[in-house]
Amino acid sequence: MVFSHNRKEIFRTSPQKTPSDWYIRKHKKNGRNLISTLRTPLAHEVIMLFMVGIERPQDNNTAWGIIVPVFEELGYGCISAADKQEEVLYRAKEVILLMAEEVIADGHMLSTLNTGFVDYRAKYPEFTEWLAIEVPVEGLKGKQKRVNITLSEPLLARVDAYVGFHHEFKDRSDFLAKAADRFMQMK
Fold first, then answer.
1. What is the model's pTM?
2. Separation CA 7–CA 10 (nearest Å)
């Protein structure tokens, strides 16, 4: 099934390979294909976009190379391989989830990896195709632990006012956790 919209073609992937809500969109940019996946998220899911580079095999004895460069920002290498082209999306998602678990286990926040669409083609020329994969990460959150902290009343009031006007924070705890993570990353 093919749909056309503004000269972009959307192809529905086969239902046996992936869930029925996954789609692949091909874009032409500067004469090269950029491929991105579209997915209709459920209302309660937290979705992150990851750019994935694909290296075509040189012959029948080599595999498809996969790289997710955003993990390098935290000092991790995120690479994988697939024996068949049909396995590339599965292997890419699998390695993203495995690395995300490591990132959380090491005390980093996943939000630091949420860079959205980034063009890595110049930095990784051997990877000729790029996927933008949306991955549900809600289930990867580290176990929450309640802590007791002491803050002055004026500081607490400032934090609450800031959170009230900045809706990217769920609550006071979310703000404090993200602020602490950013501060530690700067050091």
1. 0.57
2. 10
